[in-house]
Amino acid sequence: MNQNILKDSTSTIRVLIMTSVPAERDAVLRGLNGDARFDVVIGGVGTAAAAVSTARALATAEYGLVVCAGIAGGFAGQADIGSLVLASEIVAADLGAETPEGFCSVDELGFGSARVPVDAGLTARLAEALRAAGLPVAAGPVLTLATVTGTAETAAELAARVPGAAAEAMEGYGVAVAAQACGVPVLELRSISNAVGPRNRDAWRIPEALKALEAASAVLMEVLR
């Protein structure tokens, strides 16, 4: 796969967008309004399902970009409910080991990396376009976790572990490692449905987050013309 394709011509690339559930896929499709350059796939919930589904899709067609898109929790002070987050990097925040001194990442263990870089230039262009469209957007690390945070203590621990963490979800790292293995650039785009911290379903704003995801997908379509 040609990693320079985005630099050469964004008008001819095919884009694979990975979502986890039907509601996210449908929101993205509404925003794309039938644009045939995009394939939107439901990859399932969690890192393993996302990685397998992304790898399978990348094996069947040639893509110039992979986007992990969906709703997520936002960290206090970084991303408000209803806003958007673009990953500055994609981090498997719980991939490592517990030690008496605290959490030790696979990077520190010397067993690879829990971090996947994104296409920084395209991320910056998309962020600028989203702001121009009047959509609130923040950039920062997006964390991938096997277990969604449910306490203030865990939220604080994660924020300390990954400074500037903006959002958490469950699939980004799986999508990203599959794209990385195939040499395809990757982005992660999230709309915020809830705050990271104590679990309170009554405070979640999923319809609003899906509407923001739809609007962001329309902007993505224009940026890649």
H-E order? HEHEHEEEEHEHEHEHEH
Number of strands: 10
The chain-level mean pLDDT equals: 91
Low-confidence stretches: 1-11
What is the first-to-last residue Cα distance? 20 Å
Percentage of β-strand residues: 25-35%
Gyration radius, to the nearest Å? 16 Å
Task: Please summarize the sheet with the most strands.
Answer: 5 strands, mixed, barrel
Fraction of helical residues = 25-40%
What structural category arises from helix and sheet content? alpha/beta
Q: Counting H and I runs of at least 4 residues, what is the number of helices?
A: 8
Anisotropy-based shape:
globular
List keywords for this structure.
225 residues; alpha/beta; 5-stranded mixed beta barrel; 8 helices; disordered N terminus
